[in-house]
Amino acid sequence: MSPLNIKQGSSSHSAYDLRDPHAEVIESHTLAVIVDNESGVLARVIGLFSGRGYNIDSLTVAEIDHLGHRSRITVVTRGTPQVIAQIKAQLERMVPVHEVHDLTEEGPAVQRELALLKVAGKGENRIEALRLAEIFRANVVDSTLESFVFEMTGTPEKIDAFAELMRPLGLREIARTGVAALARGA
To answer: Which residues form the ACT domain (predicted)?
Structure first.
């Protein structure tokens, strides 16, 4: 018998897998919450998160039905499956909330974010920043002799990757809108 007492073909965990098999997995979920478009509703929804110690990774809000006075709040949050279920249940019980959709669980969804990135640099760094911007399909929306402001849309991961490449080239500022998301299909 081996020193680890692991039988070949058994369902035991690998000796190289250092993860705790009993730890709950932290998942990222995108929630679309349809609410009344009235004063104080956003504060109440956000208060639910802060009051219970839930983190918000991204938040966007916009009116979607002018005549019906409805807005859509898109929230990206993280937690264990149990925490995510609690968040959804608590949102659904709120009076100004009409619908709660977990776009992560309901099937394929399209997620996009807009970012503006200011990159300062001269010489080779300036040329490299422009080359990378072209690869990432980022548009130059402002230019001076010493800096650029790039506009980019894409997934949060794409924006993160572009920002990381711009850091050593002179990334000075970044402004992001937060995630806008819709379910795919009918």
So the answer is: 30-105
CB contact at 8 A, 105 and 28: no
The C-alpha atoms of residue 19 and residue 22 are separated, in whole angstroms, by 9
Phi, psi of 13 (to 5 degrees): -70, 150
Classify 141 as helix, strand or coil.
strand
**What confidence tens digit (pLDDT) does each residue in 10-28 have?**
444 555 656 666 678 999 9
Long-range CB contacts (within 8 A, 24+) of 127-136:
128/169, 129/166, 129/169, 129/170, 132/162, 132/165, 132/166, 132/169, 133/162, 136/161, 136/162
Tens digits of per-residue pLDDT, 116-143?
999 998 999 999 999 999 999 999 999 9
Q: Report the DSSP beta bridge partners of residue 102.
A: 31
119 near 127, Cβ under 8 Å? no
CATH architecture of residue range(s) 109-183: 2-Layer Sandwich (3.30)
Q: How far apart are CA 135 and CA 115, in angstroms?
A: 16
